[in-house]
Every structure is written in structure tokens, then in C-alpha cells.
Design a protein that fits this description.
The protein is of the alpha+beta class and about 475 residues long. Helix content is about 25%, strand content about 35%.
């Protein structure tokens, strides 16, 4: 045996094995890039700064101080305070900054709805410091997305929309935007988590990232290492107001159908099923004979809605919708919303231990919301504001009780508004709460509330004991009067 030759061939074989292993592993996973410079150079021209201007009416100055009648300074002070008050009451211009990105060379730009909300004027500034006025094509509050249009005499640099469904926790991502007015800022990080619900809207499904996102980044793109947009930077978690490494982006998979509808119609046209749903817990799954907690439990079926017409009942569990399995309750509203209005879909439900297929023809969510808003406005004809406790309340009509599913045994008035600076807001009272008692007296109309408050104030007390009902849970709260200490 030629031992030295064997050793050499063994080393060669080991080297070959190592090469094959690293080649195969490299084919399945991308290593960290040496630099993000090429990506940034390609993406930056398509990322824009968005400035908005809004005209707001300023609060008037405090009233005149009490000046003794006949004082020699009476006329002087009156003229002085009049001059001080006039500028304060005049409207003023308020500006704000955000980010956005071009998705079509013809001038289509994506940003957040909250960046341009209530704006009188929108101006888009590009990387080369040129700027163009922008027109609002459409916006959607539920997903916080807005589409803008600018008219340019040349094609604009644009970003490609990627695939957020293929993201994995740990993937590299880059955020680009205009934090604190510093345009063209690039930060890198990874996908920290997916499908986050931060309770900002009905379709929350956020990408969480540790790429630094700060105020002003809103509306900017979150891109993968190929430079494709996989998210729209929207929110941060920040006790300090700055980045703490927890930022949230709307997945582009969720945003795409919204963007398409806004471009085509100027508004969203979401599917509507007509059910109220809740999570299927382990206990519920076991009681219903399901093998595991999955699907969405139908708590209530809207009268006259598509689900009722299809025969779906309270107590059914929706397991699949239009061919997509419902693995968690929160997935159903988004899937329904993305389904075209008027489409006939197959829905698989679990009822009394067996699966059943039903066909549902979807309605339009916006039509239902408009009808509900009109009915609520009608119900609020007896709405009244009790400023002393910072609440607006209305009587609970039969129509309102049925629509909001308020049990018959729950009596009182419904809270329709809460003053931001009032005692009720400080104690956590919310719109939709039921005020059952004041000063241990039952109240059933806004007039009852006003009468009790007036009587308690007249007795010299500075607060009143209130009993609220929220979702069946009762809670006593002490409400201090607006002029109380």
C-alpha cells in the first residue's frame, strides 16, 4: 500500500466532501450580505419624502381678566387683550412629514393613510431634491394605506412588489424612509416575527422587524435583500418615542389587493359574510368534538346577511373559506375581505360533530357599514352630552339593542362619545359602554343622566358614583365633575 498516496487521496476526498456540503447548504440559504450598498443605490431613487399641509382653526385665547368697572385702565386692557385674541383665533398652517415609494413609473406612489389624512396639500420630494404636488387617488383607514399620483414629464424610478408570504423569521430586511425629516435614511435588520396583531385595525397581520424605524418612516418601504418591497412601514413600539428595535410593517401580500382596488375604484370593495366570530379555544374544540382548536366560531349571524341566506347558524365553526383553511380566527376577516364582492364561494363548517359544505354569495362590506352608520345616526336622535362628566349618551332603542346584541336584562344608556380630557376618559370609559346607574339610581335616558348629575352637583359634591357594563362585566367608577378639584 502506498500510504502517503492514500493520505493525499483522503485529504482530497475530505476537501471534496466539505465543498459539496457547503455548496448544498448555500443553495438552500443565503448568507448575510457583505454590504447593502448596491441594494440602497438601486432603491433610494424610488423612495420619496411626503410633506402635507393642513389648515386648522386655533383655539381662542383665554377670556379677559376681571377689571373693576370705571378703572382708568379698563379701556387700555380691553384693547390689549382684544389684540392678543385675534391672532390666536385665526386659522394656522400645520405641516407634517412622512415617507412613501413609487410602484409605477407613471407616478403611482404608496404611503400610509395616517401620513396624508386630512391634508389640504400633499407634496412629494424625490432623491434629487425635485418636488411635485400629489393627488390623492384613494385611501383605506382599515389597513392604513393610501395611493397618490404625481404628474412627471419623465418616467420615475419604481420599486417592485415582492412576496411577503415567503418571508421567514430571521430573513434580512431593509427599511428606507424619512425619519425625523432626514430623507434617504437606510436601516437594516431582520424579520423578528410575523402575523402580529397590535390592535390597530380589523386586518392586523403585521411583520415585526428590528430594522430601526422612527417617526417619519411611516409609509416607507421594507425591502428584502433582492430590493423587492415586502412591507409598508407603519408603526413602532416605543415608550421613549424613538426606535427600540420593534417596528411593524403591513405585509405587501395584504396591501396588494387594497392598492389595486384604490387604483381602480378610488375606494375599497371588500367582501362581507355577515357573521360575528370568536376564537375556538381548546375547551370549545373539545366540547364540539373538533380534533384541535381551529377555525372561527360563529357567535352570531347578521339578519339579512349572506351567511344567514346560506344557512350558516350560530354555533357553527367555519373551517374553510373559498378553499383556504382557517387555522386561526383572525385569518377569516382578511380572507373574506379579499374575496370579490358577489362571488359564490364554498364554505366548510363544523356542525354537530360533522363537516358540512355550504355555498355563500358575498355582499359588500362598505354597503353594510353605510347602512349601519345611517341606522345609528337615526338611533342617536335622543343623543345628549353631559359635559360635567365628559360623556355623550343615548337611550338604548330596540333596534340598537338588537344590532349591538345587548342582552334584554341590561338596562341603561349607551355611551356614544367620551371627551378626551374628561374624568370618564381618565377612568377608562369607552364608547359602547352601558351606563346603568348614577349615584346608585337607575338611568334609562340622557335626561335621567343630566338630572342625577345636576342634583348631585347641587348638593355640593364634586363627583358621582357610576356603574358601567362592558360586555357583561360590571364596574363602579367615580366620575369627578369637570369643575371639581
Amino acid at each position: 500500500m502506498n500510504w502517503p498516496a492514500f493520505q493525499r487521496s483522503g485529504v482530497l476526498a475530505l476537501t471534496l466532501v466539505v465543498f459539496l456540503v457547503t455548496s448544498v447548504s448555500g443553495a438552500f440559504a443565503k448568507g448575510p450580505p457583505e454590504s447593502f450598498a448596491d441594494l440602497a443605490e438601486k432603491a433610494l431613487p424610488a423612495v420619496v419624502n411626503i410633506s402635507t399641509t393642513q389648515t386648522v382653526k386655533r383655539e381662542t385665547a383665554p377670556g379677559h381678566p376681571q377689571i373693576p368697572p370705571g378703572s382708568p385702565f379698563e379701556e387700555f386692557f380691553r384693547e390689549f387683550f382684544d389684540r392678543q385674541q385675534r391672532p390666536d383665533s385665526a386659522p394656522q398652517q400645520v405641516t407634517s412629514l412622512g415617507s412613501g415609494f413609487v410602484i409605477d413609473p407613471s407616478g403611482i406612489i404608496i404611503t400610509n393613510n395616517h401620513v396624508i389624512a386630512d391634508a389640504d396639500e400633499i407634496v412629494v420630494r424625490f432623491q434629487d431634491d425635485s418636488s411635485l404636488p400629489a393627488e390623492l387617488v384613494g385611501r383605506d383607514e382599515k389597513t392604513d394605506i393610501a395611493v397618490l399620483k404625481v404628474e412627471s414629464d419623465k418616467p420615475l424610478a419604481a420599486l417592485t412588489l415582492g412576496d411577503s408570504d415567503g418571508l421567514r423569521v430571521g430573513d434580512w430586511v431593509v427599511a428606507i424612509g424619512n425619519p425625523f425629516g432626514l430623507g434617504g435614511t437606510v436601516t437594516a435588520g431582520i424579520v423578528s416575527a410575523q402575523k402580529r396583531d397590535i390592535r390597530s385595525g380589523p386586518y392586523d397581520d403585521f411583520i415585526q422587524t428590528d430594522a430601526a424605524i422612527n417617526k417619519g418612516n411611516s409609509g416607507g418601504p421594507l425591502v428584502n435583500i433582492d430590493g423587492e418591497v415586502i412591507g409598508i412601514n407603519t408603526a413602532i413600539y416605543s415608550p421613549s418615542g424613538g426606535s427600540v428595535g420593534i417596528g411593524f410593517s403591513v405585509p405587501i401580500g395584504l396591501a396588494k389587493p387594497v392598492i389595486e382596488q384604490l387604483r381602480k375604484y378610488g375606494e375599497t370593495r371588500r367582501g362581507w359574510l355577515g357573521v360575528h366570530i370568536q376564537t375556538v379555544t381548546e375547551e370549545i374544540a373539545d366540547s364540539l368534538g373538533l380534533d384541535e382548536p381551529r377555525g372561527a366560531l360563529v357567535a352570531n349571524v347578521t339578519e339579512g346577511g349572506p351567511a344567514e341566506a346560506a344557512g350558516i347558524q350560530s354555533g357553527d365553526v367555519i373551517l374553510s373559506f373559498n378553499g383556504e383553511a382557517i387555522d386561526r380566527m383572525r385569518a377569516l376577516p382578511r380572507i373574506v375581505a379579499e374575496t370579490p364582492v358577489g362571488k359564490k364561494v364554498d364554505v366548510v363548517i363544523w356542525r354537530k360533530g360533522t363537516e358540512k359544505n355550504v355555498d355563500v354569495t358575498l355582499g359588500r362590506l362598505e354597503d353594510q357599514e353605510a347602512a349601519t352608520a345611517a341606522a345609528q345616526a337615526e338611533d342617536k336622535g335622543n343623543d345628549a352630552t353631559v359635559e360635567d362628566i365628559g360623556l355623550s349618551v343615548a337611550s338604548i332603542t330596540d333596534k340598537l339593542r338588537e344590532r349591538l346584541e345587548i342582552p334584554a336584562e341590561v338596562t341603561g344608556v349607551i355611551v356614544t362619545g367620551v371627551a378626551d380630557d374628561g374624568s370618564a376618559a381618565k377612568k377608562g370609559v369607552q364608547q359602547g359602554d352601558i351606563l346603568m346607574e348614577l349615584n346608585q339610581e337607575a338611568v334609562e335616558t340622557p335626561g335621567d343622566v343630566a338630572a342625577v348629575v345636576a342634583a348631585v352637583k347641587e348638593s355640593g359634591r364634586k363627583s358621582v358614583l357610576a356603574l358601567f357594563n362592558r360586555g357583561g362585566e360590571r364596574r363602579f367608577v367615580v366620575l369627578a365633575f369637570a369643575n371639581g378639584d
